[in-house]
């Protein structure tokens, strides 16, 4: 969160928690459960989305959607090129989650989906390995999702 952003208050945390439990909950129902007006819910949601605190989407299981290659990439980078590499990675459609990381070798982690091995090789590995500053790419394939929960609340939540 940027310093200029308004910090989350109890109401923001309640709204986020309600959405984590049911992303389809209506603004009217949120208003009733938090004892604020529907207009206030709308403006708070707009701020939370604009400030990239939350994102309202349908979370799907890529394996059940027919993607046969799903997994995680550990991209080892030369530190001087990490920002440029990240910019390139953001343009690859099949990468849906990209984060800067620490650990053994500082780098970038990403999660990917592909229809098949050919798409994985062409759309992901070939492109990534050609980016200047990429040292090595390690791949872990997902065989099955054993737990996927998104209702962890906020750091400011009670309980």
Strand order of the largest sheet: 2-3-1-4
* Rg, Cα atoms, Å: 19 Å
Report the total helices.
Answer: 5
Coarse structural class: alpha+beta
Binned, the helix content reads 25-40%
Q: What order do the helices and strands follow?
A: HHHEHEEHE
Give the DSSP E fraction (strand runs of 2 or more residues): 15-25%
Total DSSP E strands: 4
How far apart, in Å, are the first and last alpha carbons?
23 Å
Rough outline: elongated
Largest sheet: 4 strands, antiparallel
Low-confidence regions: none
What is the average of the pLDDT values? 90
Secondary-structure blueprint:
Blueprint: H1 10-21, H2 27-34, H3 38-50, E1 69-77, H4 82-89, E2 95-101, E3 107-114, H5 117-129, E4 134-141
Antiparallel strand pairs: 1-3, 1-4, 2-3
Helix pairs in contact: 2-3
Q: Could you walk me through the main structural features you see in this protein, from its secondary elements to its overall organization?
A:
With 159 residues, the protein is an alpha+beta fold. The protein contains five helices and four strands. It has helices at 10-21, 27-34, 38-50, 82-89, 117-129; strands at 69-77, 95-101, 107-114, 134-141. The protein has a four-stranded antiparallel sheet with strand order 2-3-1-4, covered by helices on one side. Strand 2 (95-101) and strand 3 form a beta hairpin. The two termini are 23 Å apart.
């Amino acid at each position: 969160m940027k310093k200029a952003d308004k910090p989350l208050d109890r109401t923001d945390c309640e709204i986020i928690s309600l959405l984590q439990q049911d992303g389809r909950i209506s603004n009217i129902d949120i208003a009733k459960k938090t004892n604020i007006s529907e207009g206030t819910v709308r403006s708070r949601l707009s701020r939370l989305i604009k400030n990239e605190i939350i994102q309202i989407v349908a979370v799907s299981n890529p394996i059940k959607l027919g993607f046969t290659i799903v997994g995680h990439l550990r991209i080892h980078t030369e530190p001087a090129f990490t920002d440029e590499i990240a910019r390139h990675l953001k343009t690859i459609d099949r990468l849906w989650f990209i984060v800067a990381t620490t650990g053994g070798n500082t780098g970038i982690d990403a999660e990917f989906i592909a229809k098949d091995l050919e798409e994985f090789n062409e759309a992901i590995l070939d492109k990534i390995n050609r980016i200047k500053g990429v040292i090595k790419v390690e791949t872990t394939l997902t065989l099955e999702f054993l737990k996927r929960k998104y209702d962890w609340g906020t750091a400011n939540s009670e309980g």
